[in-house]
Amino acid sequence: MDGSVDGSGEREPVARKIIPQWSQYSHQHHTHNYQNGEPPMVSQLPRHSITTETCDLVCKVMLLGDSGVGKTCLLVRFRDNMFLSGNFISTVGIDFRNKVVMVDDTKVKLQIWDTAGQERFRSVTHAYYRDAHALLLLYDVTNKNSFDNIRAWLGEIKEYAQDDVVIMLLGNKCDSQSSERMVRREDGERIARENTVAFMETSAKTGQNVELAFIAIARELKARKNGTHNRSSFNVQEYVREQTQKATCSSCTS
Ligand SMILES: Nc1nc2c(ncn2[C@@H]2O[C@H](COP(=O)(O)OP(=O)(O)OP(=O)(O)O)[C@@H](O)[C@H]2O)c(=O)[nH]1
């Protein structure tokens, strides 16, 4: 036995996220009218996300960053194209969802682990770093503290993750009004450059760059698997730069 739920190598999360049913996310996310006053646990949710379908590549992607930066919202936007607005319910422990994406002719299954940003869950989440192929590290552009903590997060990554893990830094909530913004895009770019990681600003609210972040990860991991990575035929930092520039240019001309 590999300890997986369905024999596919996927482990049951050790802790559960206390959230309303996935299907109720859109508008009732924050109403606490659960049966017996208790929200359902992940183990009670439909396991439709765990499939036995064959994929050419399976990638484990972890979402990291301070509590409240928008990790769960980013995942929900990518997987279900929805936004969880309203009061914020913190993740407890760790949870995962799958999404299959096509990269050219390759079927890539992204197994996305959503971690709790709160300090008290760190020892739980550290145990998962070493299995991750890619890490999406988020800060909130309206929260300077979450940005200042990025160096500490990078330190933890260095300590617990594989040396060759793909890291992408995301400045989330870029839809926010300029009066609310506390971190300039250039500051995000600078810290990413200093640490040789890809960077972009995202919005789980509007969907800006959300798909691109995950697809760029999938492309990079596919390139590595095919052995094309070392020959520099694909570079995730370059790819992200090109794609975000393209998006900026087309929004300028439209
Ligand atoms: N304006 C705006 N708000 C966002 C965005 N993403 C998330 N939020 C809000 O930020 C709050 C926190 O979002 P979550 O996704 O729950 O944060 P998290 O990082 O998963 O937090 P933990 O589970 O505690 O680690 C919620 O109230 C969201 O509605 C975004 O892109 N734009």
UniProtKB/TrEMBL annotation:
Annotated InterPro entries = P-loop_NTPase, Small_GTP-bd, Small_GTPase
Domain of life assignment: Eukaryota
Keywords of the record, alphabetical order, are: GTP-binding, Hydrolase, Lipoprotein, Magnesium, Metal-binding, Nucleotide-binding, Prenylation, Protein transport, Transport
| Coiled-coil annotated residue ranges, if any | none
Q: Which GO molecular function annotations are given, in alphabetical order?
A: G protein activity; GTP binding; metal ion binding
* Cytoplasm keyword on record: no
| Sequence similarity | Belongs to the small GTPase superfamily. Rab family.
Full protein name: small monomeric GTPase
